[in-house]
Amino acid sequence: MGIFLVKRLFTFVLTLAAASIVVFLVLGVLPGSAADVMLGETATPEAMQALRERLGLDRPPVERYLGWLGGLATGDLGISSSYGVPIAELIVERLAVTLPLALLAMAFTTVAALALGLYAASNHNRPGDVGVMAASQLGLAVPNFWFAILLILVFSVKLQWFAAGGFPGWSADDGGGVGPALKALLLPATALAVVQAAILARITRSAVLDVLREDFVRTARAKGLGRRAVLWRHVLRNAFVPVLTVMGLQFANLLTGTIIVENVFSLPGLGRLVFQAIANRDVVLVQDIVILFAAAVIVINLVVDVLTVVIDPRLKIGHA
């Protein structure tokens, strides 16, 4: 296990370094700068040059990249040019919305997908199976942002059960609280979970059908175990390895997929923050958020690799 973790950590560092180079180069070719946005087209060349020097935009690209990388290594993420506050504070504040949203969406995805996938597999080639597969195909075809707008029209405009957008906060002192905050995240989490649940339900069905054909399942049934007991005690655990792998990828997708949904529901999370930072040409803030998303994806994949070996000891560490 030690060698396995060392290899994965080495891969983590290399991948993160490559991602940082790509992010820096891509954002470096964007037209305009934070100085252009802050001063506008009527600014004098002298004022523009002074602001560029204050923001460090006049330095060579290599120097700016190494400075940014050094700041990441020491935990100094810099100051946001558009908000004028430390970027670390902004990220922590917005992560308090994005992370619970992604976790809630992942919970919805897991519960719905496992239940539907097991039901479809246990009713293979029956109307229930066909219905689940048809519903999952529809879920795959529905864009998150379109479904989010549909949820707002139905539950906010027509039924008026939920607010159309905004976030009250987790603190009751600010007029929010845990209950109102979770309620504000229900519709966005549902919009995020639809496509992922459709994918995971199909993966679960396929994995369960493969395990149901194994000899040990027939042996368990021959010993008198009921259908439900066989499914939950024997089949699901053995089918969970491919399902867990997809779940890890999906959680990473949910984190990065919040950009559109948070803008639809006007949620003050990381997704909306990066969108605003791009509009304001706040390059350092965009770089920090994107590299945070990249690191989260890599860490999630590492955790999935470890859990896969724990769940299925037949997998050799050296080949994981």
TrEMBL record:
Subcellular location: Cell membrane
Keyword Manganese recorded: no
Keywords, sorted A to Z: Cell membrane, Membrane, Transmembrane, Transmembrane helix, Transport
Family matches, as Pfam families: BPD_transp_1, BPD_transp_1_N
Residues in ABC transmembrane type-1 domain copies: 95-308
GO molecular function: dipeptide transmembrane transporter activity
GO CC terms of this entry: plasma membrane
CDD domains tied to this protein: TM_PBP2
Transmembrane parts of this sequence: 99-121, 142-164, 184-203, 235-261, 289-311
SUPFAM superfamilies associated with the record: MetI-like (SSF161098)
Membrane topology, record value: Multi-pass membrane protein
Entry annotated with the keyword Repeat: no
The organism's place on the tree of life at top rank: Bacteria
Similarity section: Belongs to the binding-protein-dependent transport system permease family.
Protein's UniProt name: ABC transporter permease
Organism from which the protein derives: Piscinibacter koreensis
